[in-house]
Design brief:
By secondary structure, the protein is mainly alpha-helical.
């Protein structure tokens, strides 16, 4: 029973539901529906799928997350950041014929694969994999994604289509279409007008559902002026009813690309979900269970994949709408799903006059919200290296494509971590008048070195990547004139020593001993010292040369060698 309660938090929430929440959840659910329907349809087309699949997906993921999701307020559904990834995965497999049935089957299988990866990661408590996507690479990836989505939707906004693959080709095709006079004035007016309504209302009246206002207005204008007969493309009547339980069937040859796409979608969805759930949980005082969130997202994808849906993720914008509308629990999502089902069963023609340029404006508005210009500017002002990392991720998405772009973004994140470990901050320490302890000579150039004692701090685990850097810095200190008697390593920041570094320390200690210099450590953590002993480094490094604190080590040195003034010199700095 405890296991069931842990994996189905929604059932426990239902038992503790407060009656006073009901009216809030009902109203919030109906408000949310106004956003779910047009966005679901728009993001389905962004993914290269029929608009109706966005509604199927919205229904099933909301119901599944209500049972398995730990958050009271998080809203799931089709997402603008996943749409291009889904399209990049399935469109090459669909082929030139563009068979919608095959596209739906591929997208559903993609959702099932994402579900498998998500649930497995949740059960294995692998929430930390979201850390592979650093903030600078997230910003760059999302900026690239925003630009890619924007360019991809411009032809639809202007009333024509482009047969192109990739950002550069789509941009060239759009420009050529405009030059050739393919623009449809009525479509452009509707699309730009709808986009303006969404953006202005989001800015000046965020509680007003701008998407709903734009959709209702566009439908009214289309009907009043019979714009469908003027060439403006409309959604048309949606299929009535709901699809049956369906296990998608795909060929084995398609699985490799589907698995690669599912891994990328899982990483993006996981990162987005953990960051979004953390932000909203902080407002309500809830704790985030990252592993259960993965299980909840996995269950949502599983449900979507079995009913002709496609991969889903958390939506920050829809969650914000639900929160502003007064949502108290996941009943809000259940109400939204029920309302969509009612529309499909009883009024499937409700959206038949919805113009396609408005769907494009909905997607473009979402793409603009993905871009983080302020964050990019902050990276430029605060740390140029991380700005460069962000720009590399941006270029990867824009020029190579969405799936290669996310792979490049992850690789860049990992290389950036490796770079920091390879060349960590190093400092020579000294005494400073008026301050207790020992301090970086780079910050205090007037500090005094203790004659015969060089104190060195290395701010990283000591591993194969930086063992040579550590050795070279120690050799510089050993070659000073006058030569030190001791080189004291302030080892508190050293959280690990691997076997490569251990071999380096052994050779280095022997080299220093021949020069009459002792290698001494202070503040070495117990687990790290245990490794030193296990590596049998104490055969060369005197066991008496390990001290619990820097003060103890300095006191021992002074007792052995005495003290005296010396001229300060620059510290070892990060290069």
């Amino acid at each position: 029973m405890t296991a069931i309660r842990r994996f189905t938090p929604g059932l426990h929430a239902a038992r503790t539901y407060q009656r006073s929440w009901l009216s809030h959840d009902l109203v919030a659910g109906l408000v949310l529906t106004a956003l779910l329907v047009p966005q679901g349809m728009a993001y389905a087309e962004l993914a290269g799928l029929p608009a109706i699949t966005g509604l199927y997906t919205s229904i099933m993921c909301l119901l599944a997350y209500a049972v398995f999701g730990p958050s009271r307020i998080l809203v799931l559904g089709p997402d603008s950041s996943l749409g291009p990834m889904i399209a990049a995965t399935i469109i090459p497999l669909v082929g030139a014929d563009g068979d919608p049935a095959k596209a739906i089957a591929l997208a559903s299988m993609l959702a099932l694969l994402v579900a498998v990866f998500m649930i497995a990661a949740g059960v294995a408590k692998l929430g930390f994999v979201a850390d592979l996507f650093s903030k600078p690479t997230q910003i760059g990836y999302m900026n690239g994604l925003a630009l890619t989505i924007l360019i991809g939707q411009l032809p639809k906004l202007f009333g024509f289509s482009v047969d192109a693959d990739g950002f550069v080709e789509e941009l060239r095709g759009f420009a050529q279409g405009v030059v050739d006079g393919d623009t449809l004035g009525a479509a452009l007016a509707l699309g730009v007008g709808g986009l303006a309504v969404i953006l202005v209302l989001n800015e000046v009246a965020p509680k007003v559902p701008g998407v709903l206002v734009a959709v209702v207005g566009a439908i009214a204008v289309t009907v009043a002026f019979d714009l469908g007969s003027e060439g403006v493309s409309v959604v048309g009547t949606l299929p009535q009813g709901f699809p049956p339980f369906t296990v998608p069937s795909v060929s084995w040859s398609d699985l490799a690309l589907l698995v690669a796409g599912a891994l990328g979608i899982t990483l993006v969805s996981l990162t987005d979900t953990i960051s979004t759930s953390s932000a909203f949980a902080a407002r309500t005082g809830q704790e985030v269970d990252a592993n259960q969130e993965m299980i909840g997202i996995g269950a949502a994808n599983l449900a979507a994949g079995l009913f002709q849906g496609f991969p889903v993720s958390t939506s920050g914008s829809r969650t914000a709408v639900a929160e502003q509308a007064g949502a108290r629990s996941q009943l809000t999502g259940v109400v939204g799903a029920t309302a969509i089902v009612a529309m499909l069963l009883f009024v499937p023609g409700l959206m038949r006059d919805l113009p396609q340029p408005i769907l494009a404006s909905v997607v473009i508005a979402a793409s603009l919200s993905l871009a983080d210009i302020k964050g990019t500017r902050r990276l430029w002002n605060q740390r140029k290296m991380e700005f460069g990392v962000s720009m590399a991720a941006f270029a990867g998405v824009a020029l190579l494509g969405v799936l290669p772009g996310i792979g490049l973004a992850v690789i860049i994140s990992i290389l950036n971590v490796f770079r920091r470990m390879w060349r960590p901050y190093r400092a020579e320490l000294a005494e400073v008048d008026g301050l207790d302890g020992f301090h970086d000579l780079g910050d205090h150039p007037d500090g005094r070195r203790i004659p015969g004692l060089a104190m060195f701090r290395f701010d990283a685990p000591l591993v194969f990547a930086n063992a040579r850097t550590f050795r070279d810095e120690i050799r510089v200190l050993a070659g000073a004139n006058p030569k030190p008697n001791w080189i004291l390593v302030a080892a508190e920041p050293i959280t690990d020593v691997d076997t490569t570094a251990a071999d380096m320390l052994e050779d280095l200690d022997e080299e220093l001993n021949e020069a009459g210099i002792s290698l001494v450590f202070a503040e070495l953590k117990s687990p790290v010292q245990a490794k030193i002993e296990r590596y049998e480094l104490t055969r060369t490094i005197d066991p008496a040369h390990f001290f619990p604190t820097l003060d103890d080590a300095v006191e021992a040195f002074r007792a052995q060698h005495g003290t005296g003034p010396d001229v300060p010199r620059p510290s070892a700095q990060e290069t």
